[in-house]
Task: structure prediction
Amino acid sequence: MAQDKERKLLKPETAARIILYAYIIFYMFLMLFPIYWMFTGAFKEDIDIFNPAVIIPTKITFKYFLPPTFDPIYWRWIGNSFIVSTLSTLVVTLIAVPAGYALSRARGIFFSSTSKILVFTYTFPSTFLLVGFAKILAALGLLNSYAGLIMVYVPLNVPYVTYLVLSYMFAIPTDLDEAMLIDGYSRLDILLKIVIPLSFPIIITGILWTFMWTWNELLYALVIVNQKELLTMPVGLNTLQGGEISPWGQVFALSLLYTIPPMLIFYALRKYYVTGLMKGAIKAA
Amino acid sequence: MVEVRLENITHIYVTGRKTQTLAVKDINLTFPHASFCALLGPSGCGKTTLMRIIAGLNIQTSGHVYFDQQEVTPLTPRERNVAMVFQFPVLYEMNVYENIAFPLRSVKVPESEVKRKVKEVAELVGVTHILNVHPSTLDMGSKQKVVLARALVREPNVFLFDEPLTNLDPLGRLEMRSKIKELQRNIKTTMIYVTHDQAEALTLADKIAVMDFGVVVQYDEPTKLYEHPKNEFVGFFLGNPGMNFIQGTLEDNAINFGEFKYDVSDVVEKLKEYGTEFKIGIRAEYIKVSKKPFKGAFKAKCIVSEHLGTSTLLDLKAGDKEFKAKLRITDVKEGDEVYVQFPKEKVHIFNKAGELII
Amino acid sequence: MSEEKFEKARTPFFFYASVLPAVLVFTVLLLFPLAYEIYAAFVTREGTFTIENILTVIKDPLYTWSLIRMIIYIVIDISIKFGLGLITAAAFKQEFFGRGVVTALALAPWAVPLIPALFAWYMLYNPDFGVINYALQSLGLVKAPVMFLNDPNTALYWIIWAHAWRYTPMWTTMLLSGLYAIPEEYYESAKIDGATPFRTFIKITIPMLKRFLLMNAVLSLIWTSGEFASVWVMTRGGPGNSTQIVGTYAYWYLLFIGNSNVAAAALVVALPIIIVLMLIFMRLVGGRR
Result:
């Protein structure tokens, strides 16, 4: 009986719309303002950086991007980050994709146990292996080297990416595989020609994941590398910040440069990432 | 139990940026009190859109929907008091009792009332023994019962079914079909049933609206639709197999099909108004077939013979004209020559475009 | 082919070869450090067995507080990500002008690297030249500048906020995908049954996503327990050790005090909590398969 609750269709609807838009504006402001503020800070004169009223800078400067304020070692830092992230991502992907395929198809105790161990492994928080890794690397003399860092980054990411790939491929019907087997193709062919192309979204997701993880990583980089030339950006930025008087303009400028590679990659692969996250999230998490 | 009336309903879907799709065009239909009406048609004909408009899930682009004399267009689905059964059992993550009670609780019905009504409906449908159970453990049949109970508990004005049998296996389908028929007998509520399965519509409905490409082609009782289809589409869509349509040319007092003729001397004057190309429609089960010649029969060859349990379906060919005949058990085999006649009282004549003349 | 041979044909050499590198990675490259770390926790610098490290750690109030703060951190962090994420996901599910652009832009905090993002908030929080204080004071909401990170009582919470801020977008996307995973018919049925959008959300949507939500929540708890960067960058564990959590504690002991055994102990002592959470997670995952 709708008599005692006769509402006009319009009122609650428009009120709801207003609340919706208000929230979205509020949320977007919350998400984007800090980023905006930081990036404009890269171009502000020192005085303006420390003046909170200057939201839209009137005087801009590029001095933090150019020598002499811009120390050439910063390029080394970005380069180091780039090398380490790219290599780690490459190795992780090369290991994780075939493994994910195998685990999604193969039967037997070995493979099912491996899958279970996989879940256990990827949930483990990386910080809690700090001392173990540090001591082993020190013993092997791999401190202050790309190899050392990569040797830590790879194992810390392989389990999760393998799991993402495994879940995704699990949902790809085996009919395709079997049809190709009957036609005489090898498993390798199947993987390369059919399964990988079909798994593009999740592979891209895995690549993005690893790249971003390594690009952002601080703790292990701090512990493993302390030579100024070999620092990755997170560590480098961290060293610039010290005490009350930090070269904030420089820090912001560097941050901007440091943000560009992932932003570009992220933007270019945006389509794959969202699909992958959606599909992977429902299964994986 | 209300009379549902649709007046000049037109609906256009807007998807994406500018893509517009005309779903239904200028529909005028009246579904009488307590009747069981079907919306029948192929995929994309607009039947589901129409149902959603009746439900209030979509608001029509133009036109009016009336429940009895009241225009319900500005009302929400709940305010219209419609109940809807979907293609798969939509059951919430709560036990059966809670599921059934949900619509009552949503409009703040007092607890004592809720208990009484839920028990009442549970008995009617037959789920009293599983009220405390979580739906995930139930079989398909029981799930659908709970769905029906939840729909019934609100004493709806109109019951809407959106192809509820499509996802069931043949056995489940028969079971649910009889349940729905039972329901129809027990509670006098207006029911509107959407389906693409003509057999379902023919068995269940009092009246059927056959739809194609967004328009209602014919709205009639099942028998009338079956025996007197307004056009080729309806004739072919209904029946298993559909009506045969054979094209021929009017010559002298008969329609010539090449290898055989059909006498139309009694109506030839009327036919002349429509030109010279015609189609005759005749249902497979009415065609007379014999292995021996008889008066008025013409020769045809059997191309395919399918046994369907109690009947046999024959694909016959005379000249370049093919048609199907349905007989009781017969020993006509593929390759046999048979003699065929179309009984006059069962033949309909259509013009070239497929519209009924006679 | 006999059953056996068929099975063998289905697990060819290729599979073993494909999986081998991954298996090596987690047995050798992950198990070793873990084992070595546990060993280091129970051993002196010379290598003799001892529980001194463990005792030092347990008796140190700084450590126990670190542990407590770790728990506070992960709980508040997930609450924000969840709460804000869910509301935003529900909002993003609606049709509104500019939805495509907004959903893409909303991921920005996640795309910006961690350290710069933390720096940004650090500056925003600053009592003297931070925008937040400036805005609050200009609007007359506060008289004196708010000591966000400088107040030992509140610093941790502001760090947590900055961290949660960065990860909320990812959660929004994930939760949104969960919302979309529910067939439209459920929402329609609820509408027909007369439920308000709010009631639908609470009684239908969330219960249907229960397992999904729970799994992600537990995973977040586990992964965030090792948090280090946000605290280190924003306060270095200060002011006055009021924001030390397990991660920073272990790091500090390892690099500043130079005692790797105690650092190892600090990590090992916290492990049981982590293991319990992991087992809960495994249980939730197992339920599905």
